[in-house]
Amino acid sequence: MFHILLIDDDELVRFALGLALEMAEFRVTQAEHGADPVIEQVLNSEHKPDLIISDIIMPEMEGIGLLMQLKQQYPDIPVINISGGGRVSGTNYLKTAEKLGAVATFSKPLDEEELIAGIHRILG
């Protein structure tokens, strides 16, 4: 069973997406924002995630900064970024994430089936 670390400050998105991922038979660990201590605990555990899904617009540490940190410290863990936009077009954030190493990006509202299909492609 693949392990996914899901990071999103929107509780409803985390709940719905976490449930969809669990129904697709993934093990899911959830974190509230880019500086959530859960992230470090999971990444330093024996059972590192196979994939990370992170929102971009979040308090504490935004997804772009987190992506750069993850790519530097854990280059073998693929990262998917998601965004519903913000001060600038969400598309711009997602393009930036792709340039910085995200293996895939998805706009909110998410098409959960499309996201799960993408995860299966990435994890093989």
Strand content: 15-25%
Under CATH, the topology can be stated as Rossmann fold
- The appropriate CATH architecture is 3-Layer(aba) Sandwich
Major sheet description: 5 strands, parallel
CATH superfamily: Response regulator
Domain Response regulatory: 3-123
InterPro entries: Bact_response_regulator (IPR050595), CheY-like_superfamily (IPR011006), Sig_transdc_resp-reg_receiver (IPR001789)
Modified residues (4-aspartylphosphate): 55
Organism: Oceanospirillum sediminis
Kindly describe this structure:
- With 124 residues, this protein is an alpha/beta fold.
- The chain has one domain (3-48, 77-123): Response regulator (Rossmann fold).
- It is built from 5 helices and 5 strands; from the N terminus they run E-H-E-H-E-H-E-H-E-H.
- The chain has helices at residues 11-23, 37-43, 63-73, 90-99, 112-123, and strands at residues 3-7, 27-31, 51-55, 79-83, 104-107.
- The chain has a 5-stranded parallel β-sheet, sandwiched between helices.
- The longest helix is centred in the first third of the chain and has 13 residues, at 11-23.
- It is globular.
- The relative contact order is 0.18.
Name a few traits of the molecule.
single chain, 124 residues, alpha/beta, Rossmann fold, 5-stranded parallel β-sheet, 5 helices, 19% strand, globular, Bact_response_regulator, Response regulator, CheY-like_superfamily, Sig_transdc_resp-reg_receiver
Q: Which helices and strands appear, and what pairs or packs with what?
A:
Blueprint: E1 3-7, H1 11-23, E2 27-31, H2 37-43, E3 51-55, H3 63-73, E4 79-83, H4 90-99, E5 104-107, H5 112-123
Parallel strand pairs: 1-2, 1-3, 3-4, 4-5
